[in-house]
Every structure is written in structure tokens, then in C-alpha cells.
Amino acid sequence: MHCIVRAVAFSRVAAVIGLVVAVSTSLPYDPAISQTRISYPSRPITVIVPFAKGGPTDVVARIVAVEMSKTLGQPVAIENVVGAGGTTATQRAARAEPDGYTLIVGHMGTHAAAVALYPNLGYRPDADFAPVALLSRMPVLVVARQHFPAADFGEFVSYVRGHTHLLNMAHAGVGSVSYASCTLLNHLLGIDPTGVPFNGTAPAMEALAAGQVDYMCDQIVNVVVPLRDGAVRAYVIASPQRDPALPTVPTAAEAGLPAFEVEAWNALFAPKGTPDWIVAMLNTAVVRALDQPEVRNPLIGLGGIVPSPDQRTPDALRARVQAELQKWGQVLKRSSH
Ligand code: MLT
Prior knowledge:
Layout: H1 2-25, H2 31-39, E1 45-49, H3 56-72, E2 76-80, H4 87-94, E3 102-107, H5 109-117, E4 129-145, H6 153-162, E5 168-171, H7 177-189, E6 194-197, H8 201-209, E7 215-219, H9 224-228, E8 232-237, E9 263-271, H10 276-290, H11 293-301, H12 314-335
Parallel strand pairs: 1-2, 1-3, 5-6
Antiparallel strand pairs: 3-9, 4-7, 4-8, 4-9
Helix pairs in contact: 1-10, 3-10, 3-11, 5-7, 5-12, 7-12
């Protein structure tokens, strides 16, 4: 066992050195920098998750972080920093030292919808970050408390339209995926519920399962288990097609609301100014992680979608943020009146 452990450790160190050599040989040689390159990462890396532990953002971050640390040879530690729909932590990450040791998992909310929701956001998703890699694509579902008085989406729509001011809708704060996606839903249905904010959709799901709130829009990795346990009910998935993890949940289009199409996503960002070669090392670590069964199996098992290779590059993430800023700027402008 002992010699096997040494061989595995050696192969991981070799992987990191190979990685550094690969990255450093592709850039002009500079003795001052090359020493830095060999020394990165020389200590644990912090990945900030802007929502409470156990929610979709946290679950994805932790699954990927474990595999990243094997490639980078240093712990990749998750730090949950909550508040204001994830924008508090994102502001902090935008101002962190661009040295590769403080990263953040952002998503469709913090790095797109939030711009349309906060006049003075305190950061620019496209200008204040160096995109590293997409971690997951994430279908969104409409879920309700177990005894919500609707057997299907048609009855859900009738009920919420008839009781719009008596409804409590949970979300993870203004700027979150759960807030942005249900803002679109509410606009399409012409309803105006009371929003009940939580520090993430893990606590929100606990409240929903306890019957303390009526419904919410949440990412599939946070829905599969409570749904299978019968603690909540799911009416539609806001994707063009059903998800293999929940094949009996119809799409919003099948249920008569094709305009309710939302795909969330989670991605890794570094502060603007992080050296390209560090971004490249981090991207390589994510790309390798996304090919491991330890990442793919739980992510897919919980209904998530693993990004394809072409979706994993920093440039692809940069383009995604730009497109989502456009989309959610228009969606939320329309939805706010
Ligand atoms: C959200 O935007 O709703 C968050 O992703 C929820 C969470 O991760 O807790």
C-alpha cells in the first residue's frame, strides 16, 4: 500500500510539474517570473461560494474543488460568504489580490442578472473578472411545497393567479438564480407574490419542505433529492427538453408556457489582472476535473449538465457572460413592469 501511495503522489506531482512546464514553455522566458511560476500554487487556494453551504452553487463548487486540488497539488478550500443574492461576496472577490489564491464561483445571477437588478452593483461581471472556466450548466425547475393545492402546472397557474397576494415565494436574494428565474415566471403568469429571501436555496428548500413557503425556482441539483423523497413537488423544468434525472417532470413548453426557458450555470472566475498563465493552470485543472467520474457522476446524477470541451475555455465563458448580460438585461427590464 505504501509504495502505491508514493507512486500516486509522484504521478500527481509530475502532473503539476508537467502542467507548469507546459504552460511556461509556451510563454517568453523571464527568470523572475519563471521562479514564480514554479512556485504556484505554493499554498491553499480559496474559492468563495456566495451562497449557503449545501445549495447548488456550493455542491458544484465542492465536487469540482476536490478534483482541482489533485491536479494543482494544493488544497482548494471553499469559503461560503453569503448576502445580497451573492453580490456581497462577488464584490469582495472582484477586489481580491489577482494572485490566483482567491477565486469565486459565479453564475447566471451574480455575473449577469444582478446587473439589471442593482443600479450600483459595485462590480462589472465582464470587466472586473478573469473568466477561468464553466463548471456546470444547470436546468431550473418550479417547485412547490408538498401540499400545494395543484396537481399539475395548469392547476398551479390557476391557483397562483387566483391567490397572487397570498403567496410566499422563496429565493436566495436579489441577484440570485432563484430570484431572477422566478421573476421571469411571475411576469409571464402576471402574479406578484411576497418574496422570502434566504442565504441560499439550501435553507430555502428546507423551508419549502417544511411547508413554510409556497414555491420557488431552483436549480435541479438542489431539487432531485427532496423531490424523490416526496418532500416537495415539481411542476415544470424550464429547459427545451426533459432532464434524464427527472424524466417525469414536463418542460414548461409542454405545459403551455414556452416563454419560460431558463438555463442556469456556475463558473469559476479570478479577479481581473490575474496572470494568463495562472488562469491557464486553473482552467486546465477544471477541464481535467470535468472529465473525472468523481465529478461527472454526481453532477449528472443530480440532473446537472457537464459542459462540453468547447464550452470550457476562458473565452467561451467570457462570451457566455456577455450573452447572458444582454439576455437578462432585457428579460428583467420587461419583467419589472
Ligand atoms: C441561487 O442563485 O439561487 C443560488 O445558486 C442558490 C444557491 O446556490 O444556494
